[in-house]
Amino acid sequence: MDRSRSVSDSGRKDRTICLTVAINKIINSFEGAVADIPSGSSVMIGGFGGAGGQPTRLMLALRDQGATDLTIIGNVAGISKTTGYGWPDHLDPIDQGIFFESGQASKIICSFPVPGTTNPLSDIEKAWREGNAEVDIVPQGTLIERIRSAGAGIPAFYTPTGVGTPVAEGKEHREFDGQTFLLETALHADYALIRAEKADTRGNLQYIGTSRAFNPAMATAARVTIVEVDEIVEPGVIDAERVGTLSTYVDRIVKRAEGDPLP
Amino acid sequence: MDRSRSVSDSGRKDRTICLTVAINKIINSFEGAVADIPSGSSVMIGGFGGAGGQPTRLMLALRDQGATDLTIIGNVAGISKTTGYGWPDHLDPIDQGIFFESGQASKIICSFPVPGTTNPLSDIEKAWREGNAEVDIVPQGTLIERIRSAGAGIPAFYTPTGVGTPVAEGKEHREFDGQTFLLETALHADYALIRAEKADTRGNLQYIGTSRAFNPAMATAARVTIVEVDEIVEPGVIDAERVGTLSTYVDRIVKRAEGDPLP
Amino acid sequence: MNSSDQVLYNDPAPRLDRAGIAKRAARDLVDGTTVNLGIGIPAMCADFLPHGVELRYHAENGILGFEDLSAPGEGDPNLMDAGGKFPKLVPGMAFFDSVESFNLIRGGHIDVTVLGALQVSKSGDLANWMIPKRGIGSIGGAMDLAANAKRVIIAMEHTAKGDVAKIVEECTFPLTAQACVDQIVTDIAVIDVDRENKRLRLRETAPGWSFDDVQSRTAVALEVEGDLGTMV
Amino acid sequence: MNSSDQVLYNDPAPRLDRAGIAKRAARDLVDGTTVNLGIGIPAMCADFLPHGVELRYHAENGILGFEDLSAPGEGDPNLMDAGGKFPKLVPGMAFFDSVESFNLIRGGHIDVTVLGALQVSKSGDLANWMIPKRGIGSIGGAMDLAANAKRVIIAMEHTAKGDVAKIVEECTFPLTAQACVDQIVTDIAVIDVDRENKRLRLRETAPGWSFDDVQSRTAVALEVEGDLGTMV
Questions:
Q1: Partner residue facing C150 (CB), from B14, B19, B240
Q2: D87-118: per-residue pLDDT in tens?
Q3: Residue A179: CB atoms within 10 Å
Q4: In which band, very low, low, confident or very high, does the pLDDT at D67 lie, cut at 50, 70 and 90?
Q5: What is the C-alpha separation between B178 and B204, in angstroms, rounded?
Q6: Is residue C60 among the annotated active site residues?
Q7: Distance, CA of C65 to CA of B55 (rounded, Å)
Q8: Which of A1, A74, B233, C216 shows the greatest Cβ crowding within 10 Å of its Cβ?
Q9: pLDDT tens across C153-189, in order?
Q10: Which of D143, D224, D178, D183 is nearest to D30 (CA)?
Q11: What pLDDT, on the 0 to 100 scale, is given for residue B80?
Q12: Cα-based distances in Å from D91 to A231, C11, C53
């Protein structure tokens, strides 16, 4: 694949790094876009929860690809398949639960892994009960800020959220101006699978409505960012005032088929 | 002025706070918009440096209002008046230097307070040399992140920028993953004077081009945010996908006169 | 009130239904404020706003200023609120990402949040995300909202199944946030939380409910200042 | 090289002019990379990109992907770059605020930055924001760029006024960032910085300049690996 050029670079911190710049970011198939994701990877999955903003085709491709021992990072996770949350009634919902159903995921880091009821049991809760998966529950604001920090070069920050709760256990507590805060650290990933409405061929993304959610921050926090879009356009079609993710963050773009029945 | 309603509220941290919600945010004059800013206030001034995105009319109104002992917070500061930076050639540039020329400012927190040359001496450097003003020079990325943190409820964060330099003096150093970082704290202000292209009557703002810069973050970090706009429109005229500052952050809106000769 | 056999069958009058709780909670919402409504009873507040009150609704997934509709529907998946409902678009609304959404919350820019609860303590501690015996739960935006909104109103049924008290001296369930609750609106009472003094003040009772009726279903000694009102 | 009387008047050949330095620095810029050019000589690199090389220019004040023009002009004040120039709009560019702009920098997403310098040390320390005797200086985005860009190239005149060395064992001026410089392009030489071993490798000299000519104007012992090239 003649997609990238490499430049040897002595890099930060005196480590030799390889500067790879994707020249042509467009990949022709969802299979191809996720083919190199190895077992043991951490994979961010964008959106909020529900069909909007979820990279559903990339998720299905990763499920079919078969990589195992995955750490999945998402927000609301595994709720749609059991409750229909955020999906049209006439469709079978797809969510991060597919990686627990298939046994590919060994861990999830998310804010909302289980619905209020246990009947039927969600794939994530089932895997957790059977000891097959670790579930790390993070307050949503802390989760998104940890992801944002990873992309923004901030290794750690203090937050008021979670003080006095189970999420504070084992964390550094510190007072600023008489109030107690928790130290939280950046959350990086190997891959981010995200979803946008449009990409231009450079990799600028445009989002629509509430489909932004975790997508823009995840795009900045992963070593490789792969985006699923409804449309690929020429540079300039996306208004420079409305770019939601900058081209620099995007490594691979895959377009959905016209008339894809999945939302 | 029948602009706001108050609600008594037992508030956070068990202090009684007064929840004031501006119902009509539009103020008819720049004088009126800054009239209550007391001496001793900290005042953020938006933009990057140069005329674009700078709340020039609000600044002139604050100069004329006469409050003293001000702490000014801005980015590039006092460069335009001496070098013409970011201003059309046919106009006399206006920048944060006006508050040092007038003796109103006792301190500035900024990233770029002096031009490369000292002839002529800028207002800020003159005030500093004469011992009349304190100048706190902060790396630009640290400055904007400190302001953003103030608005985002984050009291402090770690940054790689500035390690081994004079800005690291007296600051906590900490290692994460073998790299050293500095602890930096949130930077709040009493007032933010900002500039946008358009406001709707609710207070949503739209920016244009490179005029965003420090404006959106400052809008979130001050107790009172006052915006200077070229146009006030009805709700809905600003596309929901293109709101640059949310209405919740905006307290007062003043419209410039049609055909104002200042950029 | 842990042993509650004596009150199980002697409600003095009907309790308010879920809509009734929402309606009463909605009465204290102030025009022009930025408000986040949790799922369940809190979300129903949107249906009962007093005349002339217009709120700036915030949903964690990235909308501000929409019109909240409690009816679910077959909407556009790209125009959802955090509860999975499909809000109505109105002029002056805005979309944004989760970073901005939680800046708004964590930064203290949400004026009021209405949330559900499993337990509330006399010091205003809130537990609403996990039942200990299940061992797993969902936090979502609740911890951020509870810890950082300017005002936290709890809208819930007064007791759990079997008339077990949910308003307690100390929460036994995992906390969502400490000392955060300002007011509790239930199906039988409106209670103000004086967090500083760790006291609960009963302000109103449901029609037909006396102080003692409410007190007997509450595991904290309630106080009254002035007249006791009736929930309407 | 602090006492420099002996070399003041004996340049063996003309030094490159500012444009010549920029042209040589531009030769190593790689197609498709995200690049931030500092003010002065670095900004002039944009005029000398090799054929077929298209860069994604970043300016701190919030633009990515514009066309850089080194000519100042009477532009739109709302379409400025960080140096106060007025860039040309091109399809595929984007505007954003300073938070996003410095996420890009601090987060290590800028592939290359070209900056000016007052001093560079053999370990790659950079000093470029304050002359100590003035006591006040401007940092701007320089500390963020120097500390966090993937590759830092310095484009500067080799010596200061009076032929005082700017390439030194240890910087005596206040630092901008430690151990950050990868390459130095001057009016007489191209030098690679081996930060790990604190060594400087002379790669090229200006036409007519020998190793000794450059060494005598450099306060660090230079090394050469293989053939010494000529700057073109």
A1: B19
A2: 888 999 999 999 999 999 999 999 999 999 99
A3: 13
A4: confident
A5: 43
A6: yes
A7: 26
A8: A74
A9: 999 999 999 999 999 999 999 999 999 999 999 999 9
A10: D183
A11: 96
A12: 17, 70, 45
Contacts of D56 in chain A (CB under 8 A): 202, 247-248
Residue B149 in tokens: 């943190």
Residue-wise pLDDT tens digits, B213-239: 999 999 999 999 999 999 999 999 999
Q: What is the Cα Rg of chain D in Å?
A: 18
Indicate the average pLDDT of chain D: 93
Cα A190 to Cα A43: distance, rounded to the nearest angstrom: 6
Q: What residue of A is the nearest CA neighbor of D65?
A: A247
The beta-carbon neighbor of A202 closest among D92, D105, D148 is: D92
Q: Tokens standing for A87?
A: 């999906």
DSSP-assigned beta bridge partners for residue A137: A110
Interface partners of A (3+ CB pairs, < 8 Å)? B, C, D
How far apart are the C-alpha atoms of D56 and D33, rounded to whole Å? 6
A73 near C CB under 8 A:
no
Q: Is A211 left (phi over 0), alpha (psi -120 to 50) or beta?
A: alpha
Q: Active-site residue among C60, C74, C204, C225?
A: C60
User: What are the b/e assignments for A193-230, b being 16+ CB within 10 Å?
Assistant: bbbbbbbbbbbbbbbbbbbbbbbbbbbbbbebbbbbbe
pTM for the model: 0.95
Higher-confidence residue: D88 or B36? B36
Quick: pLDDT tens for A50-76: 999 999 999 999 999 999 999 999 999
Q: Is the pLDDT of residue C9 over 80?
A: no
Quick check: D64 and A246 CB within 8 A? Answer: yes
Q: Which domains does chain B have, with CATH numbers?
A: 26-255 (3.40.1080.10)
- Locate the DSSP E strands across chain D: 34-37, 56-59, 63-66, 94-95, 112-115, 119-121, 126-127, 151-155, 159-160, 164-165, 167-168, 183-185, 189-194, 199-205, 222-223, 229-230
Locate the chain B residue with the closest alpha carbon to D81. Answer: B210
Picking from C93, C108, C195, the nearest residue to B10 by CB comes out as C195
What separation in angstroms does the CA of C142 have from each of A259, B22, C44, C61? 37, 27, 17, 13
Residue of C nearest to B148 (CA): C103
Q: Domains plus CATH for chain C? A: 18-230 (3.40.1080.10)
- Average pLDDT value for residue range A150-164: 98
pLDDT tens digits, one per residue of A82-129: 999 999 989 999 999 999 999 999 999 999 999 999 999 999 999 999
Residues A195 and A47: beta-carbon distance below 8 Å: yes
Bridge partners (DSSP) listed for residue C160: C164
